[in-house]
From TrEMBL:
Keyword flag Transport: yes
Cross-referenced Pfam families: SNF (PF00209)
PANTHER family tied to this protein: TRANSPORTER
Name of the protein: Sodium-dependent transporter
InterPro entries in the cross-refs: Na/ntran_symport (IPR000175), SNS_sf (IPR037272), YocR/YhdH-like (IPR047218)
Residue stretches spanning the membrane: 20-38, 50-71, 92-116, 152-170, 179-202, 222-247, 259-285, 305-338, 350-371, 391-408, 429-453
Chief location: membrane
UniProt key word Transmembrane helix: yes
Protein localization: Membrane
Keyword tags: Membrane, Transmembrane, Transmembrane helix, Transport
Membrane topology label: Multi-pass membrane protein
GO CC terms in record: membrane
Length: 453
């Protein structure tokens, strides 16, 4: 038995600092960096969106990420329990409940998209995508996601994998796989970017991603899109990083870990952009064509590479694996909470909650097919769920920022974050107290049309 089993309450701990870093990076790096970043950046004009996104990461994302780790490590509890322990009877715990709700919402559609990556992986494995389908890749994708049964089966398979890892426990399940898979994905992304740049769309693609057309900033919805995507990609605002921080002992240095995780996640997104957009222009695809973007563009790239089906096999395997390490952290938020709350076993909780989330995801899966007419906020079900996550994550982040910035004493916050009395700690608190909350509120106001410019 390891030391963690001797701890009061028997909560688990990461085996090592590197284990925590890899798991947190595994949570951050996922479908958000490749699938979601490229389609949201594509829909919002490219370079200006990217700059806005990076500014939000630095001024809002990084400080709140450090706040989540500080809360989790200090409380040694889950997303809800943390607030109940650190501020009993206070309303801050709303952030915890929002977080558990966000876990259900996000994982419900995340499982659907991850299921698509599994389908593509298997299609590359078995030859189904070795050559361009008769009607092209776009029709192939559209036909697949528009059908009723098959996508749900892939979603089920992916959710079963996620539940399997979570019920095996933190250390054994999550820590190990990331060590090999993440660096491999990084290498493959870089190779594919280089390849994509040779396809003839390099100039247009790079200009789209890096030469800002500022006029898109006049569109109010770009701000919520960038804010929501930043939180989504960093796994922020829903207690996932509180939960992961709670498995951490007090030996680590949190600011350095935070900077490393946020940078890595952002670099992954940018490299993914360099991979996607040159190919988008080379193939004459509209960058704003939506959630199917990578599933249409990537096969086109593999088609151009000699032996591309091998690259396709490797790529979709790694993408599904990156999705898995993120999905695990989503499920863990809900599982950690319900386990403690109802004193259920990890196994029972993971199976039950994972099953519920699978069911909740079915309407998303069907929303490109038989349920295409069912809408809320004027959006099909899956887009509606994504919209909710764009709202819930920043709202949770807002409460977390206010809690650490105002709810804790200054000295307490600085100690919990490992900043001590350094000047940069004071700057961090300034960002949490003023900059992040005001910026998030302004984005919400812009979204509901109350800001006019
Ligand atoms: N950060 C993940 C990604 O970029 O794919 C998605 C995610 C994981 C969001 C965990 C939120 C979360 F709590
Ligand atoms: Na991410």
């Amino acid at each position: 038995m390891s030391e963690r089993d001797l701890r009061p309450g028997g909560r688990e701990q990461w085996a090592s600092k590197i284990g925590f870093m890899l798991a947190a990076m595994g949570s951050a790096v996922g479908l958000g960096n490749i699938w979601r970043f490229s389609y949201v950046a594509g829909e919002n004009g490219g370079a200006a969106f990217l700059l806005l996104y990076i500014a939000i990461i630095i001024l809002i994302g990084v400080p709140i990420m450090l706040a989540e780790f500080s809360i989790g490590r200090k409380s040694q509890s889950d997303a809800v329990g943390s607030f109940q322990k650190l501020a009993p009877g206070k309303p801050w715990v709303t952030a915890g409940f929002l977080g558990v709700a966000s876990a259900f919402i996000i994982l419900s559609f995340y499982g659907v998209v991850a299921g698509w990556t599994l389908k593509y992986f298997v299609s590359y494995l078995t030859g189904g995508l070795w050559s361009e389908p008769a009607d092209g890749y776009e029709a192939f994708f559209g036909g697949f996601i528009g059908s009723s049964v098959e996508p749900v089966i892939w979603q089920f398979l992916f959710m079963a994998l996620t539940v399997g890892v979570v019920l095996m426990g933190i250390k054994k399940g999550i820590e190990k796989a990331n060590v090999i898979l993440m660096p491999t994905l990084a290498i493959l992304l870089i190779i594919m970017s280089v390849y994509s740049l040779t396809l003839g769309g390099a100039q247009e693609g790079l200009a789209f991603l890096f030469a800002p057309d500022w006029s898109v900033l006049a569109e109010p919805s770009i701000y919520l899109a960038a804010l929501g995507q930043a939180f989504f990609s960093l796994s922020l605002g829903m207690g996932a990083l509180i939960t992961y921080g709670s498995y951490l002992s007090s030996k680590e240095r949190l600011p350095g870990a935070t900077a490393g995780i946020a940078s890595l996640d952002t670099v992954f997104a940018i490299v993914a952009g360099v991979m996607i957009f040159p190919a988008v222009f080379a193939f004459g695809i509209d960058p704003s064509s939506g959630a199917g973007l990578v599933f249409i563009v990537l096969p086109g790239i593999f088609d151009q590479i000699t032996g591309g089906m091998l690259v396709g096999i490797a790529f979709f395997f790694l993408l599904a694996a990156a999705g898995l390490s993120s999905a695990i952290s989503l499920l863990e938020v809900a599982v950690a909470y319900f386990m403690r709350k109802f004193s259920w076993t990890r196994k029972k909780t993971a199976l039950f909650i994972g099953g519920l989330i699978f069911l909740l995801g079915i309407p998303s899966s069907l929303s490109m097919g038989v349920m295409a007419d069912v809408t809320f906020f004027g959006l099909v079900f899956m887009d509606g769920m994504e919209y909710l996550s764009d709202l819930f994550l920043p709202l949770g982040g807002l409460i977390i920022a206010l809690f650490v910035g105002w709810g804790w004493k200054k000295a307490e916050s600085l100690e919990a974050s490992d900043f001590g009395s350094s000047g940069i700690g004071a700057f961090w608190l300034f960002l949490l107290r003023f900059v992040a909350p005001v910026a998030i509120l302004l984005v919400f106001l812009a979204q509901i049309g109350l800001l006019d410019w």
